[in-house]
Design goal:
178 residues; alpha/beta; 3-stranded parallel beta sheet; 3-stranded antiparallel beta sheet; 6 helices; 6 strands; 44% helix; 14% strand
Length: 178
């Protein structure tokens, strides 16, 4: 039989210190993980309270929008209806065709990205490179293809007259090289 003082059974000197060091490291890591978890829960709870009213919620409570939605036979919740992706339509074009969009029973209309963009160079048409709308050059609303912020507001007001909700595409993770 091998005595405990020899080999693996007894931890003495340096072995004891490294075990204690490991315990302290693991305890500190556990405390940091718990603090991160608690902090994350606090942030998500405060974020949830801050975002209880969205533009979608406001359309649900808008009497004019609700009456139009019911009259046009549109689904009450966006996820039960159809979305028209109005790719490269201007806000004014969407506004002009809103009655037809409602007649086609679209619950929502989605715009192309609305940020200021680098192009197109040849005017207000996308016969050039269509990727320009995914190359924002700033964070303001308005580009030469879809229209200005006032155009967006007017189109949204028209959409709500028909009970249609507006989804705005946004490119917020990168900017053009300029």
């Amino acid at each position: 039989m091998t005595p405990l003082s020899k080999g693996t059974g007894l931890r003495t000197g340096a072995n004891r210190r490294s075990t204690m060091s490991g315990f302290i490291t693991k305890t500190a890591a556990g405390i940091a993980a718990a603090a991160t978890l608690i902090g994350g829960l606090a942030i998500s709870a405060s974020s949830a309270q801050a975002t209880t009213t969205t533009s979608y919620d406001r359309t649900l409570g808008n009497a004019q929008c609700e009456a139009a939605r019911t009259q046009n036979g549109l689904a009450k919740k966006m996820n039960y209806g159809s979305i028209l992706h109005a790719w490269m339509w201007s806000f004014n074009t969407m506004k002009e065709h809103m009655a037809e969009i409602a007649d086609a029973v679209y619950t929502s209309i989605q715009t192309s990205p609305i940020s200021v963009i680098k192009g197109p160079i040849q005017g207000k048409q996308f016969t050039e490179n269509r990727y320009y709308v995914y190359q924002p050059a700033g964070t303001s609303i308005s580009n030469s293809v879809v229209g200005s912020e006032d155009d967006l507001k007017a189109m949204t007001a028209e959409a709500h007259k028909y009970g249609i909700r507006v989804i705005v595409d946004a490119v917020i993770s990168h900017f053009s090289s300029d």
